[in-house]
């Protein structure tokens, strides 16, 4: 059981606040706005494709853009969404935000992608953005999580199953690698949100109705 003396120390490890409030507020706002850039919609419009929210899963992400058959558009969406997390952390570093807060900055960018004000707070599921965050935070963690996604994707050909498995493993990898609590906690929060966003996919997987990578979405 935690004592009163231990509680402040635990909170400080989870959320270090050794920076000025204005600096933190500025970095948080910038990170959220970067996360809000809807690359799936922007890229689709640039390529003359249908709005990704109007077909398939309705998810504004790279996997749904791929359903148009335009692999370049899907790749650019993937790279753009992944870059958001890394750029947000890079901007925070340039502003002078302490590195022990980067995990939280990455989480804010992720939240911007999942709940973007630019799309009425109805964004993507955050797989690519979370990958960018993990790579920027600690590249071995990012590679281990990405490797999990790739293994599952090539083995079972379900994007959703790959994302669910990678999300489950990310906090496990973070703990196993001895990363600080200020990284483990935001990574765990991201993983939890990813799992919630994939609840429908999980139900379809269990019912044998989920669409495999490269296949057209099954009609309900």
Structure report:
45% of the residues are buried. The protein is globular. The model is unreliable at 1-6 (pLDDT under 50). The chain has one domain (20-207). The chain has eleven helices and no strands. The chain is mainly alpha-helical. Helix 6 (102-114) packs parallel to helix 10 and helix 7 packs antiparallel against helix 10.
Question: Secondary-structure blueprint of this entry?
Answer:
Blueprint: H1 6-14, H2 21-35, H3 39-46, H4 62-66, H5 71-95, H6 102-114, H7 127-137, H8 139-156, H9 159-176, H10 181-197, H11 199-207
Helix pairs in contact: 2-5, 2-6, 3-5, 5-6, 5-7, 6-7, 6-10, 7-8, 7-10, 8-9, 9-10
Which structural class best describes the helix and strand composition? mainly alpha
**Quantity of strands, as a count:** 0
| Beta strand % | under 5%
Sequence of secondary-structure elements: HHHHHHHHHHH
How far from one another are the termini?
Answer: 50 Å
Arithmetic mean pLDDT: 91
Computed CA radius of gyration, to the nearest angstrom: 18 Å
Residue runs with pLDDT of under 50 for 5 or more positions: 1-6
Fraction of residues in helices?
Answer: 55-70%
